[in-house]
Amino acid sequence: MTIQRLPPLNALRTFEVAARHMSFKDAADELCITSTAVSHRIRALEEWLGVKLFNRLTRSLQLTKEGEAYAPIIKEAFDLLSNGSEALKQSNDGGDLIISSTMSFASNWLTPRLPSFYNQHEEFAVSVEATDDPINFARTNIDVAIRYGEGGYDELHSQMLFTDLVTPVCTPDLAKNLLTPADLADVSRLDYHWTGFNERDPSWQKWFSAAGLPDTELGSSPVFSEEHMVLSEAIAGRGVALVGMVAAADAIQRGALVSPFPVALENRSYYFACQPQALNLQKVTAFRNWIITEAIKFDEFVGGHPEMQFDNIQRSEDLQ
């Protein structure tokens, strides 16, 4: 029997990452080691193979002829290992259904509705991990994710659930004093800036522009990093909050909040996402079917509720 002699696995992995990034520093960041460790591993692999894999230039890397031939072979080998391991992991349909969701969606929309999923599927235990950070399915045990964005989730199965609309909300008592959109310039306004918030996203200034008041001078307003915090402040009557209807819908339905003006900013959309092979799992398929049904019901509810009817909807990114 012939014994196969293979280079050290960690050196091969380091070469694959360094060749993909063409940078020892970026490879070190991905592997959570130092650039020096990357360099040592690459040199050890070169010594084991007896060939040079990289030309180390002053400010860049360049694969040698041997490195260019070797890199796709090693990448294919690691892809096979990853896909095979994932297939084996996914072959077991037991364990918790682990859902990743943005913090706002988890607290304001998903969690209140999950009991209906439990009632329909008592055979599945559910765990929700709330984070605003992007999910790398290959490096976590997440089964499905609800992401807030613009789609384009490459290599994933994804489906849009609904698009969020952003508008001011407040208590009914406070709304009595708001006769025109201009009145909002003189009240306490509450703002919400989530992780990754930028100039393309909704803001009070953009809402005033959509309402036909682009030159309104606005003073500073308190800014919160979590949408449920802004909603809590609004429900307590401490100001008018600029939030999404996905988060505010339940409070509007029970009469705790109202949307005083029919002007809204169209924001990003919520998507269901998972790895394509995960759809072979009963727990993933069951959750996908359930949340799509809930999304349809939510759209119908929003479309039929007078407090969520908007005569003027503009895309946030189209406004300055």
**What letter string, H or E per element, gives the SSE order?**
HHHEEHEHEEEHEHEHEHEHE
Q: Per CATH, what is the topology of the largest domain?
A: D-Maltodextrin-Binding Protein, domain 2
**CATH homologous superfamily classification of the largest domain:** Periplasmic binding protein-like II
CATH architecture of the largest domain: 3-Layer(aba) Sandwich
What helical percentage do the residues reach?
A: 40-55%
Proportion of strand residues: 15-25%
Please state the structural category.
alpha/beta
Radius of gyration: 26 Å
Oligomer: single chain
- Terminal Cα span: 72 Å
User: If helices are DSSP runs of H or I spanning 4 or more residues, what is the number of helices?
Assistant: 10
Mean pLDDT score: 88
| Global shape | elongated
Compute the number of structural domains: 3
What would a concise description of this structure say?
The chain has 320 residues and is of the alpha/beta class. 41% of the residues lie in helices and 19% in strands. The protein folds into 3 domains: 9-90, Arc Repressor Mutant, subunit A (Orthogonal Bundle), CATH 1.10.10; 97-162 and 270-298, 3-Layer(aba) Sandwich (D-Maltodextrin-Binding Protein, domain 2), CATH 3.40.190; 164-267 and 308-318, D-Maltodextrin-Binding Protein, domain 2, CATH 3.40.190.
Q: What does this 3D model show about the protein?
A:
The chain is an alpha/beta fold and 320 residues long. The chain folds into 3 domains: 9-90, Winged helix-like DNA-binding domain superfamily/Winged helix DNA-binding domain (Arc Repressor Mutant, subunit A), CATH 1.10.10; 97-162 and 270-298, Periplasmic binding protein-like II (D-Maltodextrin-Binding Protein, domain 2), CATH 3.40.190; 164-267 and 308-318, Periplasmic binding protein-like II (D-Maltodextrin-Binding Protein, domain 2, 3-Layer(aba) Sandwich), CATH 3.40.190. The chain is built from 10 helices and 11 strands. The chain has helices at 9-21, 24-31, 35-49, 65-90, 103-120, 172-175, 204-210, 227-235, 245-253, 282-304; strands spanning 54-56, 61-63, 97-101, 126-130, 144-149, 157-169, 189-192, 223-224, 240-244, 263-274, 312-315. Strands 3, 4, 5, 6, 7, 8, 9, 10 and 11 form a 9-stranded mixed sheet that branches. Helix 2 crosses helix 3 (35-49). The relative contact order is 0.14.
